TrEMBL record:
Protein name: Predicted dehydrogenase
Domain Gfo/Idh/MocA-like oxidoreductase N-terminal: 7-121
Cited InterPro entries: Gfo/Idh/MocA-like_OxRdtase_N (IPR000683), Gfo/Idh/MocA_domain (IPR050984), GFO_IDH_MocA-like_dom (IPR055170), NAD(P)-bd_dom_sf (IPR036291)
Matches recorded under PANTHER family: OXIDOREDUCTASES (PTHR22604), TRANS-1,2-DIHYDROBENZENE-1,2-DIOL DEHYDROGENASE (PTHR22604:SF105)
UniProt family annotation: Belongs to the Gfo/Idh/MocA family.
UniProt GO molecular function: nucleotide binding; oxidoreductase activity
Pfam family, one: GFO_IDH_MocA
Keyword terms: Oxidoreductase
Superkingdom of source: Bacteria
């Protein structure tokens, strides 16, 4: 950290999500974005100029080596295994979901982070949204009894284009790694890690999954039914169902402004908890405070949960016949 105690951030991959996320740093105390890197110096410099960053690099390796950066936000495609290189360089990391393209890749990054005692977290912003925090508190307080079922869907209409990253196997394309991670992580957060995964869906001509339905089964009979697709829009809603009521998370559930509590014998109760800024500030606060305090994991989005979600996605992809690989040849 800087002598003033400021946690200094760098951005690896100045894409659309990075643009939105960086704007939310105005809501984060004790943090500053000081650098950005791209494989195109012009692109990095344009990002730096737009957001007032003092340093732009034309290679990822230069930012990894910078000694004035504490945390790296990694927004490159799933297979670009930059998280491992960042952790090995001693940098804390916030890794855009999905954490990696493969289970083995995720396990490697987590093992390295724990071996080096470096903070690492998947950027699952949903868990930090105030409305989801409120839903979790209601569940923990027993407001809907024992949670027995979770339902969630998330779909976008993406016209097929083999040149688009979303349909490129080499870049970690497909519905499950892009939107499916949200529904799986949501179910894992409220039900825990399943004992069985059953997947059904369809593939594109490029070998990625275009759509998938998942049934997550638990030994005691609990279940999650999840939908993800690139073929069409879906409501993007979720429901947490318990023995004495349920919590409705209205669209889009992965960054809601409210939840609705339904209890047996009572009128529905709308609990409004809008996010701050664009909704990214909450996860940025989590990481900044953790790094400043010397913690190596988040209690809200721990690495074991990331691994559990990655394994569910991996099992589902295997059943669908989709094979992803990590790409270690990106450090230039």
């Amino acid at each position: 950290m800087s002598s003033a105690g400021t946690v200094r951030w760098g951005v690896l991959g100045p894409g659309r999500i990075a643009q939105a996320l960086v704007r939310d740093f105005v809501h984060v105390d004790g943090a500053a974005v000081v650098a950005v890197a791209s494989r195109s110096l012009d692109r990095a410099q344009a990002f730096a100029d737009e957001h007032g960053l003092p340093q732009a690099y034309g290679s990822y390796a230069e930012l990894l080596a910078a000694d004035d950066v504490d945390v790296l936000y990694i927004a490159t495609p799933h297979p670009q295994h930059l998280a491992l290189a960042a952790v090995e360089a001693g940098k804390a990391v916030l890794v855009e979901k999905t954490f990696t393209a493969t289970v083995a890749g995720a396990e490697e990054v987590v093992a390295a982070a724990r071996r080096r005692s470096v903070f690492a977290m998947e950027a699952m912003w949903t868990r930090f949204q105030p409305a989801i925090v409120a839903a979790r508190a209601l569940v923990d307080d027993g407001a809907i009894g024992e949670v027995r079922q979770v339902q969630a869907d998330l779909g976008v209409e993406r016209p097929f284009d083999p040149a688009d990253r979303m349909f490129d196997l080499a870049q970690g394309g497909g519905a499950l790694l892009d939107v499916g991670v949200y529904v799986v992580s949501f179910a894992q957060y409220f039900l825990g890690t399943p004992d069985r995964v059953v997947a059904h869906g369809s593939l594109t001509s490029t070998g990625v999954d275009a759509e998938a339905g998942l049934l997550l089964g638990y030994a005691d009979g609990r279940v999650a039914t999840l939908l993800a697709t690139l073929r069409h829009h879906t409501p993007g809603a979720a429901r947490i169902q318990g023995t004495t009521g349920w919590i409705e998370v209205p669209p889009r559930f992965h960054h809601p402004g409210a939840v609705v509590l339904h209890r047996r014998g009572a009128e529905p109760e709308v609990i409004s908890r809008p996010p701050t800024g664009g909704g990214y500030a909450h996860e940025l606060v989590e990481v900044t405070e953790a790094v400043a305090a010397g913690r190596t994991e988040s209690a809200v989005m721990p690495l074991d949960d990331t691994l559990a979600v990655q394994r569910v996605l991996g099992e589902a992809l295997e059943q669908l016949g989709v094979v992803h690989h990590e790409d270690a040849e990106v450090l230039r």
